[in-house]
Amino acid sequence: MSNKRILVVEDDKDIQELVEEILKAEGYVVFTAANGLEGYELFKTNQVDLIILDVMMPKMDGYQMAKLVRQRDEKVPIIMLTALEGEYDEIKGFEIGVDDYITKPFSFNILIKRVKAIIRRNEKEEAKSLEFKEISLDVASFKAQVNDKEIELTYKEFEIIHLLMKNKNKVISRQSILDEIWGKEYKGDTRVLDSHIKNLRKKLNIPYIKTLKGIGYKFEA
Q1: In this predicted model, what pLDDT tens digit does every residue of 178-199 receive, in sequence order?
Q2: Is-above-0.90 flag for pTM?
Q3: Average pLDDT, the chain
Q4: Domains in the chain, CATH or no CATH each
Q5: Residues 31-64 as b or e (16 or more Cβ within 10 Å = b)
Q6: Do 127 and 139 contact (CB within 8 A), yes or no?
């Protein structure tokens, strides 16, 4: 079963529920929103591995949301669902940074194949190392360096800083971090995360791990 998290932003309730049901049957964790504004708020506070985004929606359309997403995250894949068939509309989406288009009405089998293909491609492209200013992570060997000096981290500490860095400039809720690293079955004290963050700050001595009170953490300059 996959633990990949997919955000579905679709104002047609029937389509939204069908897509959610099919994705969950494939083992994905699914978040849903009925408009771009609601979807963007979910994106900001949850770690997601893929966004399925309708174009025509109230409050904020798909293009507007995609632009905002790309300002915060250049890599998260976006599939757009659209009833529009013009080449101009597709070009507009690709210029924003959309990864794929699926025109309505669509086959749910095709949707699943596209989702799997994009996630698989994204996993292959995921860097084996991450760098930001003076800090670098070697994901394969679980090594962290600051100013070319190796910093000894525990496995959990490495997983936390890796998660924060690969979601740079994006708020990750405390619960999302716990679910991702400790697993959804974890029922222990949630303050264990705060202790690990405290230790990370002390060991790495970098100013990029930000606390958003009552929400979670963010890695940013």
Answers
A1: 988 888 777 777 788 999 999 9
A2: no
A3: 87
A4: 5-125 (3.40.50.2300), 129-219 (1.10.10.10)
A5: bbbbbbbbbbebbbbbbbbbbbbbbebeebbbbe
A6: yes
